[in-house]
UniProtKB/TrEMBL annotation:
It is an enzyme of class 6 (ligase). It holds the Pfam family HGTP_anticodon. Its EC number is 6.1.1.21. Residues 65-390 form the Aminoacyl-transfer RNA synthetases class-II family profile domain. Gene3D superfamilies: Anticodon-binding domain, Bira Bifunctional Protein, Domain 2. It catalyses: tRNA(His) + L-histidine + ATP = L-histidyl-tRNA(His) + AMP + diphosphate + H(+). It comes from Pyxicephalus adspersus. It comes from the Eukaryota. PANTHER family: HISTIDINE--TRNA LIGASE (PTHR11476:SF13), HISTIDYL-TRNA SYNTHETASE (PTHR11476). One of its GO terms (molecular function) is RNA binding. This is histidine--tRNA ligase. Keywords: Aminoacyl-tRNA synthetase, ATP-binding, Ligase, Nucleotide-binding, Protein biosynthesis. The keyword Aminoacyl-tRNA synthetase applies.
Amino acid sequence: MATFICRYTSGWNLLVSQRTKVCATAANACHSIQVTRKVFAHQDATAQSFYGEKKQNLVLKVPKGTHDVHPKQMAIREKVFNTVVKCFKRHGAESIDTPVFELKEILTGKYGEDAKLIYDLKDQGGEQLSLRYDLTVPFTRYLAMNKISRIKRYQIAKVYRRDNPALGRYREFYQCDFDIAGHYDPMIPDAECLKIMYEILSELELGDFLIKVNDRRLLSGILTVCGVPESKFKTVCSSIDKMDKVPWDKVRSEMIEEKEIRPEMVDRLSEYITLNGGLSLIQRLSEDPLVSQNMVAMEALNDLKLLHRYLEIFGVTDKILFDLTLARGLDYYTGVIYEAVLLSDKSSQNPTVGLGSVAAGGRYDELVGMFDAKGRKVPCVGISIGIERIFSIAEKKSEESGEKIRTTETQVLVATAQPMFLEERMKLLTMLWNSGIKAEIMYKNNPKLLTQLHYCESTGIPLVIIIGEQEIKDGVVKIRDVATREEVEVSKENLVEEIRKRTS
């Protein structure tokens, strides 16, 4: 017995010795038989992989500023997208697509202070590239490159901004843009863009909203009459644009201390930019002793009067507010600008207090000319729907209402109450698919009928087709309404028509 134990121990030690050599070569570890025995029992997290690389402890997460979208969220998003696209198409827009990245020089100098948020990529084959920041600049590059002078287009795609992630703010997100490019009579395309914004927000039923309207020319005229140097216009506009989020005293301090605007200029400016109202405000500014002497401002005011007239015809003035705090920080705007906000409370003392911007846009007449070799200008005006914020609001409303969201569009489940009918179910399923019916089966040879019915209830499938030996002999099927549990027999020839009638 002692001899046997000795031989067993020697054999084990030999095996351990060989294993130790392998481990020492592969990982510079395993310096003892004790360590080797552990290696036999467990795979080390840092052991070499099949390709000779060390495995790391992988942290499963999405990159900062991005997020996964689950099936229920996708169902809500598709509903929102359908509403938006239907509106765009109702107004005669055609669709285009542009690359997700552009030459860096295309994007440079178009976004003012926000340019620091552009994602730059490494040199790719001799080209300096950046991820697109929005859909507007790529659109105008497309117009200039293809020498297009007139188009009404929409585009829905993801854009990228190296912003600080926060609740509802991402680094990768969708934009939904509608733009009208071409030479037209004043304010007609602009009025249609505002009408589209009004229609979409009304149809989505997100709550009460307000569309704030201003004109960059009016703002420039006011800055001029208040004595602000033209070289400071862009940086002052970026400060003014913060007034819906930051108290005036902080904006005032920023203009004086950081942007070196004299206090008397800032105070004079505050008398104008804090104003908002309807058509009467436009009339008041037109009669203002200082503003009325500025040709640029008066040109803007005359266009805003005309715009208001068209908006009256379109029936949207109940949601329009002329607001001089609206500046839109992007450099490329040249005329009318607008922004839609959801209101926190209808009874609010200040109607401009909202839950945040959900759509914005304006006129940008010079951007195409920046790309054209001959400086050829193509006037443009457009809107961008803040679709990510709308998604969040729609998802929250759905949760609060307890609404049951269907994540599929399946019309019917092909089921059986008897075993050994998989092939018959597959034949019937094929016939339905070929007829354009959205149908499923359960992936089991012999599923229980109760299991199949429970599946329909949990996924919202409205109809079940039940087949069995007798139904196959008679050339019929049973259609069961999942909600009412009512069953009827239908011939196979009339099955597709009956399903369409019940699910239309």
